Amino acid sequence: MNEFGFEQLAALQDFPDGLPSSVELESGEQVCIVRLGDEVFAFSEDCPHGETPMSDGEIVEDYIIECSMHCSQFDVRDGSVVEPPAQEPLTTYDTKIVDGHVWIRVH
């Protein structure tokens, strides 16, 4: 982790475009990573509605991920609920890409 609270995850190319991936942080916390082109988004791995892994979900339209269990939909950019039954947003994490590697700001 660097002095700004960022942890390096992996090379950008290691994350398949448009497919959610589960990553374990140094703290042991699981987060979901979604790469959309040259952008990378990170948010809580567990759906706030049913605690289903968000990495089992899929991108159903631009920036919208759908949980595989109850079809709640969230905006990957800010975690907001787009389609219930979920009522609570996903917790999001700041990300950046430096020299082709993905970094995440840990809470």
For the record, what CATH class applies? Mainly Beta
**What series of H and E elements makes up the topology?**
EEEEEEEEEEE
Helix amount: under 10%
Structural class, please? mainly beta
| The CATH homology group name | Rieske [2Fe-2S] iron-sulphur domain
Describe the structure concisely for a colleague:
With 107 residues, the protein is mostly beta strands.
Descriptive overview:
The structure is a single chain. With 107 residues, the chain is an all-beta fold. The protein starts with 5 loop residues before the first strand and ends with a strand. Strand 2 (21-24) and strand 3 form a beta hairpin. A 4-stranded antiparallel β-sheet has the order 2-3-4-9, with no helix packed on it. It is globular and about 40 Å long. Helices cover 0% and strands 44% of the residues.
Give the SSE map:
Layout: E1 6-11, E2 21-24, E3 30-36, E4 39-44, E5 58-61, E6 64-66, E7 73-75, E8 81-83, E9 92-93, E10 95-98, E11 101-105
Antiparallel strand pairs: 1-11, 2-3, 3-4, 4-9, 5-6, 6-7, 7-8, 10-11
Key attributes of the depicted protein:
107 residues; mainly beta; Rieske Iron-sulfur Protein; single chain; four-stranded antiparallel sheet; 11 strands
